Automatic annotation (TrEMBL), chains A, B:
GO biological process: proteolysis
Keyword field: Glycoprotein, Hydrolase, Protease, Signal
Name this polypeptide is given: Lysosomal Pro-X carboxypeptidase
InterPro entries associated with the record: AB_hydrolase_fold (IPR029058), Peptidase_S28 (IPR008758), Ser_carbopepase_S28_SKS (IPR042269)
Family membership: Belongs to the peptidase S28 family.
Keyword Protease found: yes
Superkingdom: Eukaryota
Species assigned in the record: Platanthera zijinensis
Pfam family, one: Peptidase_S28
GO molecular function: dipeptidyl-peptidase activity; serine-type exopeptidase activity
SUPFAM superfamilies membership: alpha/beta-Hydrolases
Source taxonomy: Eukaryota, Viridiplantae, Streptophyta, Embryophyta, Tracheophyta
Length: 384, 384
């Protein structure tokens, strides 16, 4: 891992704008054909998380590196992993004043500057650059190609929901795709989950109901509300569907456990069996209070980004999905953001800055050499 | 003239970033075919100055409006004219903290947001937008097309020196083109100017020399240094060449007056005649002390932009030009910026953000529909 001295604020030139911070990146010369050849540079853009050196051996694109004799670079996104301005994560996430430099535009400018400098230092100004990324990193890869065509000649954006903004895509998309994933795995599993929410709420109101639920789901501490259980179960379904590795197939595993016992008539016990089967190494089911969730959100870079520009209107409504009805309500969303960071989200900014509705025409003219790959079982594929 | 409530800071989302300001724009429906036709919207981007309503009748593009049945819009650039954040120009130009939001990136985002909102309000989402501008406004028009292809389908950029950055274009270009303009007008005029600098400096060191020069050039107050006169003369040559209206042709007018009297042997008296002939309505020649120039620079938005990102390395060196030798020295340039605004310029940022060197390849792929028009007598054409 290396550090690059990065400009904190690329767009404003005020009092603090000449501050810099150390941005982490990794580089591998193992397969590179060299600066004087036409060998490309594959730049993998980190998203909402730390980067790891072993990405050099696991990524799909990297497997193509020997063939293309490419130089490999991984760039960590500002404010994630070790690339924190202001020294520590605590300082960087302190308030809206320290978090203000966390945005997709600044992140793209970071990549532009780092790549330009790196090419200069390697005398590789003529080497073509391909940007690569998945999920949020995939959006950045596509946007880097669109916004900095002089820096990248192409992009491979995997599972990048660049259309899940504003009203471009139906708000139900995310929940509908997850629900379809479960339904395709097993119709009875889908029905069991769909009917469980009412049952959980009802049980919780009964005498000793929360205690019974806590025992049934083996929660790490006694539940204090039905919501705590509902949130955690939804989270488990989201995660299993979104990171549904075809080799291990956690959705199938979960559904198989739910469907397993033909004699079980209590749908909640079925769900509990399913959760146990996919809960991995945890001995008990973690549950979080509203205060704990808020504290965790406050320290999440993605919450900040969601509360400023990355407003993805995800809702779970209608008959085609298995979750508890959850509308997207911008007023509530704004209250949540105000309470967390004292900011008001800008729901129309991403489509103004990067386009959206007319993306096909723009791509025809402009965004040549962008490959969007989407797993149809990925819930974000509805916006990809 | 109308006002649009514009976002002050499009890219950072911190404490003050939800501030807005009133941005001026003008709109004319006179020729418009309407929202449901394919009539285009011509958007003229203001540069470093106020916008005027009479631009609707004078601009070249506007003369094409009846033919295309186009809607006409003129947008004033933030911090120029009446579009000052913080109420007044005095407040907006107070220091680097209030000036920090004056940048080309923010200005382009202003246009993107205003155009998007305007089209929505007019139900003209499908109307094609052509961006138009000259000089700095022309750079913005080209960059708007490059960076916001989903918002503009084309651009007409007149006299836009988008390559006069970094080391893309020879630093001598600006001075060489002006000198060529004068030389093409008259070889003896060019020689007279070229030889005058030494003469001015020599005269100034003589007893009562400054008094003699003050009288000869009819300065509005007595000169206190040769530099005051040199600066003003260079400024006059710059301005006359850059805004060399073919109808009035001030360069020819100036040279004719310099060449006029066959009996005049003093080159300075010849220069004085030339200046008088083009000095327009001023009764005397204005001269500025270093302090006055600094104060005027401090209140110039373009000085701020030059001291942050718009670093155009203009120098007057070598035998192909008629000015006093003036090297571009980045250290001196930085000292000037530090003294004026307490900022350090970023000379490589514009080429990182907008490209430059490989502009031709990028244009081939991406920047279709950009017309760059350059008057070859315009000194900025060397970077256009």
């Amino acid at each position: 891992m290396r550090n690059y001295t990065q400009t904190l604020d690329h767009f404003n030139f005020g009092t603090n704008s000449y501050d810099t911070f150390l941005q982490r990146y990794a580089i591998s010369f193992k397969y590179w054909g060299g600066a004087n050849t036409s060998s490309p540079i594959f730049v993998s853009l980190g998203g909402k998380g730390e980067i790891f050196i072993n990405e050099f051996s696991t990524s799909f694109v990297i497997t193509k590196a020997p063939h293309f004799k490419s130089l490999l670079v991984i760039i960590e996104h500002r404010y994630y992993g070790e690339s924190n301005p202001f020294g520590s994560k605590e300082e960087a996430y302190k308030n809206s004043s320290t978090l203000q430099y966390l945005s997709s535009e600044q992140a793209l400018a970071d990549c532009a500057q780092l790549i330009t400098d790196l090419k200069k230092n390697l005398s590789a100004e003529n080497s073509p650059v391909i940007a690569v990324g998945g999920s949020y990193g995939g959006m950045l890869a596509a946007w880097l190609r669109l916004k900095y065509p002089h820096i990248t000649i192409g992009a491979l954006a995997s599972s990048a929901p660049i259309l899940y903004f504003d009203d471009i895509t139906p708000h139900n998309g995310y929940c509908n795709v997850i629900s379809r994933d479960f339904r395709e795995s097993s119709e009875s599993c889908y029905r069991t989950i769909k009917n469980s929410w009412h049952q959980i709420r009802k049980t919780a109101t009964q005498h000793e109901g929360l205690t019974a639920l806590s025992q049934m789901f083996n929660t790490c501490r006694p539940l204090t509300s039905a919501k705590e259980l509902v949130d955690e179960l939804e989270y488990i379904y989201f995660v299993n569907a979104q990171f549904n590795d075809p080799l291990t197939n956690p959705v199938n595993k979960l559904c198989e456990a739910i469907d397993k016992d033909p004699h079980e008539i209590d749908p909640l016990r079925r769900i509990a069996s399913g959760v146990k089967a996919t809960n991995g190494f945890s001995k008990c089911l973690k549950v979080f209070s509203v205060e704990e969730e808020n504290e965790s959100d406050r320290l999440s870079g993605w919450s900040w980004q969601s509360c400023t520009e990355m407003v993805m209107p995800i809702e779970c409504m209608g008959n085609e999905q298995m979750f508890e009805a959850y509308p997207f309500n911008f007023t509530d969303y704004t209250s949540w953001c105000k309470a967390l960071f004292n900011v008001v989200p800008r729901p129309h900014w991403i489509t103004t800055e990067y386009g959206g509705r007319n993306i096909k025409e723009v791509l025809k003219d402009f965004g040549s050499n962008i490959i969007f790959s989407n797993g149809l079982r990925d819930p974000y594929s509805s916006g990809g």
